[in-house]
Structure formats: structure tokens, C-alpha cells
Design a protein that fits this description.
The protein has three domains: 2-141, Copper Amine Oxidase, Chain A, domain 1, CATH 3.30.457.10; 149-256, Immunoglobulin-like; 278-497, 3-Layer(aba) Sandwich (Aminopeptidase), CATH 3.40.630.40. It starts with a helix and ends with a helix. It has helices at 2-13, 53-56, 115-126, 300-319, 335-344, 378-386, 401-407, 414-431, 445-448, 465-471, 474-497; strands at residues 26-31, 36-41, 43-45, 48-52, 63-67, 72-77, 80-85, 90-93, 96-99, 105-107, 110-113, 130-133, 138-141, 149-155, 159-166, 172-177, 180-185, 196-198, 204-210, 216-221, 227-234, 237-243, 278-283, 322-325, 349-356, 366-371, 436-442, 454-461. The chain contains eleven helices and 28 strands. The chain has a six-stranded mixed sheet, sandwiched between helices. It has a five-stranded antiparallel sheet with strand order 5-6-7-8-9, covered by helices on one side. It is α+β, with helices and mostly antiparallel strands and 499 residues long. The structure holds zinc ion (ZN). Zinc ion (ZN) is lined by residues 284-285, 291, 300, 354, 387.
Length: 499
Amino acid sequence: MLNARLALLLAAAGAFVPGPAGAADEVVVLSGGGGHKTVVLVIDGPKGPEIALEEAAKGLDVSFSRQGRDAKVTLKSGGREVTLENGKSLFSVGGQLKAMAAPVRVVGERTYVSPPSAATVLGAALGQPAAYRAAYRALVIGAYEAPRLRITNVVNAATIESTVELSKPVPYDVRKEPNRVVVTFQADVMETDFIAEALPGRIVGSVRFERATPPRLIFDLGERFASVKTSERDSQHVGLVFDVSPTAGATPAAGGAAATPLPRPSVAPVTGFRRPIVLVIDPGHGGEDGGAQGPGGRFEKDLTLALARRLRAAAVDSLSIQAFLTRDGDTEVPLDERAAIANNFNADIFISLHANGSRFASAAGTEVFFLSYTAADDEARRVAMQEGAILEKAPTNDKDVGLILWDMAQAAQLDASSKLAGNLYGEIAQAALSRSRGVKQAPFRVLVGATMPAALVEVGFITNPEEEKLLFSEAHQVRLVNALVQGLGRFIAALRANP
Ligand SMILES: [Zn+2]
């Protein structure tokens, strides 16, 4: 239920969520129950990713026409008419006005809108339900059910029995690679709640689902692993048994050539293995947006990425959790999209990393923020402004209900977020080696859409000459990251004790 509501919120807010892996610049349009498929290129529009309606509608029963110098575009299909106008975020369907999250851009022969808006417009033109499924970058028109994947992992003393069930037949291939076993599915998209699971016993270290094209299930092998064989293989099931002892003559399931099938393992109900805690780390700024700059010429965006990568590695190692970054390169990611990525991962914790800037070179110290909806003091507002944008007053216009919902996503988490901020600050204040500035609240745009406990950490002032040097030193980065891991550890322990 929560997921469906989330998807709705995301669609309503027009948020565009990139998949965790796979092509970063394509959207698949699926219709006719998956019988029709078009791949559409995504471009960087002024307000975020956009696709051309003309391309998305290729092969569909929609005709386009243009009128006048206002660049009005009309889509017609089976007696229905949808009209869009360049620069407007309203469009008309049979004379009724509807809203989109961002204005239409008509450029030459192309009409550009965000992928969620493209779903709204094409759905209206075709008179069919249509939705943009951000999780797997698909624009789905009409009834379409993606195959669902379910996986159960049973850990025994000397084996791990993994059973993959599919809701409908999907061709797949099982391949043994160095240090891992990969099941690749020939499907455009697949639905699953499964993200990743860490397994005890060191036979298989972890199992991960990758929403790449094509989707894959990856078993990372542990040091006790000796052999793998398939216990079951049909178009809707695959059973894998990972063993600590070598199987006589076992050539593990290479290239789909399965070893001798075993009888179906007597599968005990899975208990005791909970979904691992998922942490999403957001390295502030990136790409054109360098963030604050130090007197030595170094940029905040590089510091936050270095810290985020260290934090990801340290958190996975020491806390046995899953951790992902909102960007793993020098790229620009819009503020709302950062929280949307955390929502997309069903993250339990969201941390945005930053370094502060001030026109006073002497300003120094670390501070941890969580979201405030109400007016904060001038200094807190200044920091929030510097980190991209502040939360504006909730729109009163009722056509923007979706945006209001998006803006309220973090409201239910404020109590937990204040605990997260407190735990992080408790540790980092000692590690920072300079003045500590406390836990504060400010209207940070980047935290607004997060549906989980979320905090923003200012690790120090990059504009302070001494702190700039310190912040870019390996020793200090390790110290800060260890402190954050300690703080996270305390927060997670409380979460596990009292979920
Ligand atoms: Zn920043």
C-alpha cells in the first residue's frame, strides 16, 4: 500500500526517479499488455528530464497537429482531443483543463514534457489508464502487468537454497561468473519488493536485484562457497542450491546448461531474516553546482562525494546494511530527485552531506540539521538557501495538491529525523576537532520529499582555510566517516529494538 501511495506521490509531484542501475537516458513505452514497446530518449530539459511526445507515441494510434504561432499541439485519437500549448503547464482534454508538473516545451517538431506528464497526456489522448513507473523507467499505457519476482533464501549449515518464483513465464539464463552467480531475465521490466538481502554463513554473502536492462538477480558468493546447482528449472521457477562442498563434476549452471536437477528442497518458511536496513547517502551538489568553494580553490561537491563513498563502504562493512548514493560521479541531480531516489530504494535512512560556507573566513564547526516546516532563524535559513533552495510556503492553489503531498512527505518523520540528527551529531561533534554548532532545524528543500528519517550534515566550513585543508585530508575524512557510522549504529540499534 505504502508503495502504491509513494508511486502516486512521485507521479503527482512529477518527480523523475532514475533506476539504481541501467541506462540513464532512456524510457521504455509499453502498451497492449506489453506487446508494443518503444524506447524513447530522455533529454535534459530546463526543469529536469523530458521526453518527446511524438517519439513516445510512435506506433500508437495518436495523430499530432500544430496550429498558430503560439505553438499549440493537438493530439487526436478515436474522437478524443488533447491540446497543449508551448510554455503552459495546463493542457485541455475535450475542453477540460488539467495540470502537469512543469510547462510544455515545443521545440521544432517535438513536444517535450516530463516522463510522468507524458503518461498523463498520452493516457488522456488514448482514453486509457497510463502511468509512469519511475522504478523501472517505463511509461505504461493500458492494462499491463509486469512479471513479479519473489525470492526466498533458506540458510542451512552447509547450503543455501534460493527459490525464485515468477508470476508469469519469463525466459532466463543462469550464469556462474567469478565470485558470483547471475540470473538474467529477458524482460523489459519486472516488479519486485526485493532489493537486496545479506545472508549469514558466508556461503552467499548477499543477493541483489538489479533493475538494469535486462533485469538481473546477483548472488555474491562467500568464502565458504564451493559449488552451485539448480534444483528446479521451469519458465516460472528457478531453484539454486549453493553448497560448501564441491559437487562431483559439477559445472555450475554455466550458460544455462543446468547440472542434474535435485528434488525440490524441502523449504522451511523463512524466518529470522529481515530485509536489511537501507541507507541512502546524498553527496551534496555536483556537476555545474560546485557548492561552496574554499580559499584553496577546492569545491564542496568533491568533498561530499569523497565522504559519501567512504561512508558507503564503512557503513556496509561495519553495520551490515545496504547503502546507496544519489550520485556516484560529478553529476547534477535536482534537489527533489535526491529524496525521490531514497524513496525509490525504500530507504530507511537518508543523509545529505554538505560543507558549510561563510563570508567570514573564521566561521568553523560542524552541525547537523533536520527539516523544519516553520520559519527558522536567519542563520538556519541562510544555510538552507546555500544548499540549493528552501522549502517555500506550501502552494495554496488546489491544482498543486500533488506538490503539497510531496512537500508533506517528511512531516511524519520529523520525530525520527530529530533522533537521527541527534545520534549523528553526538558522534561527529567530537570528531570534528572544531567548534560544534549543534543540532538545528531548517527548511531544506532536499529533505522535504523523503519518506524516511532524514538529516543533513554540515561537516565543517570549507571557506575556513584550516578547515578546508583538514576536510580534504584522508585522516580527517576517515575520522568523520567513523563518527557518522557510530551515530548511524546507535540509530539503527534503536530502530531494530523498536521498529
Ligand atoms: Zn552544500
